[in-house]
Amino acid sequence: MNLLQMAPLCDSRGNIRYFIGAQVDVSGLAMEGAQMESLLDMQSQRETLETGGQTTKESKSEFQELSELLSPRELQNVREHGGSLFQPVINDDPNHRLFLQDSDTESEIHIPSQGPQNPTPGPAPSISLTGVYKNYLLVRPYPSLRILFTSPSLQIPGMLQSSFLNRIGDTGAKRDNIVHAMMAGRSVTARIRWMTKFNGQGRNRWIHCTPLLANNGQIGVWMVVVIDDEEEYSIRW
Known about the structure:
Number of strands: 9
CATH architecture of the domain at 130-233: 2-Layer Sandwich
Strand order of the largest sheet: 4-3-7-8-9-5-6
Oligomer: single chain
Radius of gyration: 24 Å
Helix content: 10-25%
CATH superfamily of the domain at 130-233: PAS domain
């Protein structure tokens, strides 16, 4: 079971230029959360609407009738092996995200996504990305690595069609590791010195680079999320 997410990428005038999509395997969440109170309440509300508020005694389903025919040993087998086909897919790819900090050392990390515990209805969704996704770049694949598109918050003169590597002020092993990761199509997260022509000294920022694959399996574009370093959060451009 996959959760499909779609979001528009807009320019400074609010015009939609691209769509970014993602599919997340939620099989495990659906199976493990089948008895969650929120899901049970949702199901109860749906049944109430369908029956017009009247409660009716449910007849036994075919599965319930089948379970009554099972022996204790067969029930034990169901408990041990039931739901095996609904387990989330495990990614065996050894090329996990590369994580680079100031020491130029490498590590591989896996950060599970977390959603709100008690989601509540809100206003109509915005047509632009929010949160950490407010600052992003779309970068052409290696060897070009030129910036194809930027979020409105990063649109400054000279940014488009410039080399992404020119924005990385770091030299040495860290820069080389970023280049090698993008050559290999490997996701990479790094703390860098972000450079612009308006700031010759640069500032510390995190970049979160993820390859987006085309239908032929090749990298079509890189999405680079740029995040302010907490240590310099109070410093502005």
